[in-house]
């Protein structure tokens, strides 16, 4: 196999042997404010001493239940301090943490518990406890811990266990935590499953520690008093990695358990660091566009964007423009966008899914350079990331110092390094299938430029091959469509078909406002999307997009869906990525009908 290669060999400047080193560093810091949790009286700080006492208290109870090195402990919870405390307690014993999304169903939860052989589970609320109780007898679960003060005879209250920890240092606990080897298994993370049955990704302490040591080296986090809001689900590798890395660098974490509370949390905490998935950045942009509708707001907004565009190169290298026009645009428009994100953030990072060049350019034009990163659960997760010192828009940055990247003949991105996973839990054949000559096959198509920046085109399995033999990369097209405020989610289809088409789940608040303004009566979303004027509206959006596409890429049909895609119905992952198989399965009859009509005379 002929392979283009770029290899970086500079060693990490930081020494981090296992994940327990993070807990011990936090404990030794003696800081009064390591975490923040919203309570009845506002945001309450949690000190390093409180965290250490809580972790040791939980670890002692887990040990009394017979939890030993290699045993699995699950966490079913929204983001909150107890999530991380439970994680640290299990890891300190050499046990293996199994995260479960709080939004997963009872059946999905049972699958993870059974597949992993989990013996103990920590749950957050009464509803999560009830979910587990309905399936417990069909799983290996022996003990349940509950974080909230729930009246129950079926679970142990976690708060009491945390208070039983020591007020001082426990040398025996510390020694055990430090004895965990880099090759010891730390966690089994079940992939959100964009296709097929979720697989348990096995990550060792060394896998995650090596990635944490390098991924944020260039940002200088922790050099001053900084805060970040933890709202991306900790069951996802990106959020967990970010929180570990920020804790290690001394950044205060403010926990937001529900994304619906994010706007308020940002306004109250005013974080210095803003880390999100692309969907969050998309929604912020949509809100800005909606608030600038009508004269004179729209004229001011368009003028400000044109000013920002002329200063884009300065923004991307971290400079603040000094021209009078930019200062006015900043005061009238840009500062208000930043205010909606807390008003205090200095660094913005995106991960978990492709950001899209056009969205990145829009943010750069309003004075916000978003440092896009790239990785997978199997790579712990970061492979590459843009940094303040090395930023190239439209790319995912340069590979980390301890990661090697190669591009195979067919364009697939291959990687190797200490952060690459050890395999899929109980799936040796599938593990073997994703490696070639010691290199992990990411499944992504990409390009490695001579300047070292990595670009990702699309998922290899998502590439659409029409019946005419043409390959279409759907993500760039979808990313362009998502910038339109009338579109919630767009999914390009057409594999093995004569032409590509697109399924669109509208952004219904905007569409409904448009319908009212245009005297369109409707009693349901089904009626709304079936309206000929509405269909003509979206046909026009696609026609405009088609003018910028190659002939074989042009979208020939539009299928409007009368509902929003979600993780609950299997059409999105828990990090808002499209599950193409789930969408095509759910709307199979509508898709087939659309293509059948196109084959008819005059169709």
How does this structure look, described?
The chain is an alpha/beta fold and 603 residues long. Among the domains are: 161 residues, ANL, N-terminal domain (Rossmann fold, 3-Layer(aba) Sandwich); 137 residues, ANL, C-terminal domain (GMP Synthetase, Chain A, domain 3, 2-Layer Sandwich), CATH 3.30.300.30. 38% of the residues lie in helices and 20% in strands. Strands 1, 18, 19, 21, 22 and 23 form a 6-stranded antiparallel beta sheet that branches. α1 packs across α2, α1 packs parallel to α9 and α12 crosses α14. It is globular. The two termini are 46 Å apart. The N terminus is likely disordered.
Topology of this protein?
Elements: E1 4-7, H1 20-29, E2 35-39, E3 42-46, H2 48-64, E4 72-76, H3 81-92, E5 96-100, H4 106-116, E6 120-123, H5 126-135, E7 143-146, E8 156-157, H6 158-163, H7 171-179, E9 185-190, E10 200-204, H8 205-215, E11 227-230, H9 237-248, E12 252-255, H10 262-269, E13 273-276, H11 278-291, H12 297-310, H13 312-316, H14 324-340, E14 347-350, H15 357-365, E15 370-375, E16 382-385, E17 398-399, E18 404-407, E19 412-416, E20 423-424, H16 428-433, E21 435-436, E22 439-448, E23 454-459, E24 464-465, E25 471-472, H17 474-481, E26 487-493, E27 501-506, H18 508-517, H19 525-530, H20 532-546, E28 558-560, H21 580-586, H22 588-599
Parallel strand pairs: 2-12, 4-5, 4-6, 6-7, 7-8, 11-12, 13-14, 14-15, 27-28
Antiparallel strand pairs: 1-18, 2-3, 9-10, 10-20, 15-16, 16-17, 18-19, 19-22, 21-22, 22-23, 24-25, 26-27
Helix pairs in contact: 1-2, 1-9, 2-3, 4-5, 8-9, 12-14, 12-15
């Amino acid at each position: 196999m002929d392979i283009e290669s770029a290899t970086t060999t500079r060693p990490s400047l930081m020494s981090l042997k296992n994940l327990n080193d993070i807990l011990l560093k936090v404990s030794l810091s003696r800081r009064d404010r390591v975490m923040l949790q919203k309570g009845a009286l506002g945001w309450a700080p949690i000190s390093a001493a409180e965290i250490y006492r809580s972790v040791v208290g939980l670890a002692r109870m887990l040990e009394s239940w017979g939890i030993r090195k290699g045993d699995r402990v699950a966490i079913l919870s929204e983001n909150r301090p107890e999530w991380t405390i439970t994680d640290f307690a299990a890891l300190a014993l050499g046990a293996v943490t199994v995260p479960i999304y709080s939004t997963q169903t009872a059946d999905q939860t049972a699958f993870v518990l059974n597949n992993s052989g989990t013996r103990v589970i920590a749950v957050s609320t009464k509803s999560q406890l009830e979910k587990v109780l309905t399936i417990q007898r069909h799983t290996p679960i022996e003990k349940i811990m509950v974080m909230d003060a729930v009246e129950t005879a079926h679970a142990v209250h976690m708060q009491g266990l945390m208070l039983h920890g020591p007020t001082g240092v426990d040398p025996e606990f510390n020694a055990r935590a430090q004895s965990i080897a880099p090759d010891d298994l730390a966690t089994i993370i079940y992939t959100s499953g964009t296709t097929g049955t979720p697989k348990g990704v096995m990550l060792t302490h060394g896998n995650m520690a090596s990635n944490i040591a390098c991924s944020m080296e260039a940002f200088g986090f922790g050099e001053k008093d900084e805060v970040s809001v933890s709202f991306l689900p900790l069951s996802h590798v990106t959020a967990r990695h970010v929180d570990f890395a920020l804790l290690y660098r001394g950044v205060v974490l403010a926990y937001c358990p529900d994304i619906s509370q994010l706007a308020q949390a940002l306004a109250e905490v005013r974080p210095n660091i803003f880390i999100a998935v692309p969907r969050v950045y998309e929604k912020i942009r949509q809100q800005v566009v909606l608030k600038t509708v009508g004269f004179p707001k729209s004229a001011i907004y368009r003028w400000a964007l044109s000013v920002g565009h002329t200063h884009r190169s300065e923004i991307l290298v971290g400079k603040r423009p000094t021209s009078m026009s930019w200062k006015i645009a900043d005061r009238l428009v840009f500062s208000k966008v930043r205010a909606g994100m807390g008003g205090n953030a200095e660094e913005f990072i995106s991960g978990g899914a492709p950001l899209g060049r056009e969205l990145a350019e829009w943010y750069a034009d309003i004075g916000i350079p978003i440092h896009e990163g790239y990785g997978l659960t199997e790579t712990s997760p970061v492979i590459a990331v843009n940094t303040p010192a090395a930023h190239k828009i439209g790319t995912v940055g340069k590979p980390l110092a301890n990661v090697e990247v190669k591009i195979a003949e067919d364009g697939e991105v291959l990687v190797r390094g200490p952060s690459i996973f050890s395999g899929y839990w109980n799936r040796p054949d599938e593990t073997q299938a994703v490696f070639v000559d010691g290199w992990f096959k990411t499944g992504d198509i990409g390009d490695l430029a001579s300047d070292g920046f990595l670009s990702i085109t699309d998922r290899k399995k998502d590439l659409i091959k029409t019946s005419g033999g043409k390959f279409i990369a759907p993500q760039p097209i979808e990313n362009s469509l998502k910038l339109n405020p009338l579109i919630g989610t767009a999914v390009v289809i057409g594999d093995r078909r004569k032409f590509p088409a697109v399924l669109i789940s509208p952004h219904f608040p905007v569409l409904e406002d448009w319908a009212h303004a245009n005297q369109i009566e409707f009693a349901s979303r089904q009626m709304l999307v079936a309206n000929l004027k509405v269909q003509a509206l979206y046909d026009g959006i696609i026609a405009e997009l088609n003018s910028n596409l190659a002939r074989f890429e042009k979208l020939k049909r539009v299928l409007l869906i009368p509902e929003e895609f979600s993780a609950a119905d299997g059409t999105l992952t828990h990090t808002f990525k499209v599950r193409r198989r789930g969408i095509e399965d759910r709307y199979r009859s509508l898709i087939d009908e659309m293509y059948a009509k196109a084959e008819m005379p005059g169709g």
